Amino acid sequence: MTDMLLTEIDHVAIAVPDLDAAVAYYEQTFGATVAHRERIDSDGVEEALLKVADSYIQLLTPVSDDSPVAKFLEKKGPGIHHVGYRVTDCAVALQSVKDQGGQVIDQAPRPGSRGTTVAFVHPKGAFGTLIELVQE
Question: What is the pTM of this model?
C-alpha cells in the first residue's frame, strides 16, 4: 500500500468564459475576494484565486484560442475543469502515479502559479478527473 501523498485540497478549478463576471459573481453572492490573480502564458490562461479556508476556488479563462481551457470551454462549456491536490513533493507524487501505471500529462514537475511546482495527471487514468499535483 502506498503512503498518503495528498495533504489537502489546494483548489477546485472552474473554467469560465468571462473572468471578471465570474469574480463578480463570487464577490456579490458569497463575499469572496481575490487572493491572487495571474496570467500564465505557458498554459494560455488567466486565473483568479478566491481563498476559501485553506484552499482556493480557481477561476480560469483562456487567453489564447488554442489553450486547453479554451478547448474545454468549446467542448463542455463552463464548469469544473480540474481538482488540485497539495503534495509535499510533486516529483515523488508524480512518480507514484507513473509507478501505478497512471497516465500523466507532465512527465516532470514544472512551475505553476503563485510560485508553486505542479504536474498534471490525465483524466483517462484518474476516473475522468483531471488532477493537478501542487507543491507549495
Answer: 0.95
* Spatial CB neighbours of 57, under 8 Å, sequence gap ≥ 6: 11, 12, 14, 26, 32, 49, 50
Give, in degrees to the nearest 5, the angle at Cα 40 between 106 and 92.
30
Does 36 participate in catalysis according to the annotation? no
Give the pLDDT of residue 3.
Answer: 86
Active site residue 132: yes
Tens of pLDDT, residue by residue over 67-110, are 999 999 999 999 999 999 999 999 999 999 999 999 999 999 99
All structural domains of the chain with their residue ranges: 6-135
**82 catalytic residue (yes or no):** yes
Q: Which of 11, 46, 81, 135 is catalytic?
A: 11
Residue 18 and residue 88: Cα distance in Å, rounded?
A: 33
Instruction: pLDDT band for 33, please (50, 70, 90 cuts).
Output: very high
Among residues 46, 58, 81, 135, the one annotated as catalytic is 58
Q: CATH for 6-135? A: 3.10.180.10
* Alpha carbon distance 47, 110 (integer Å): 17
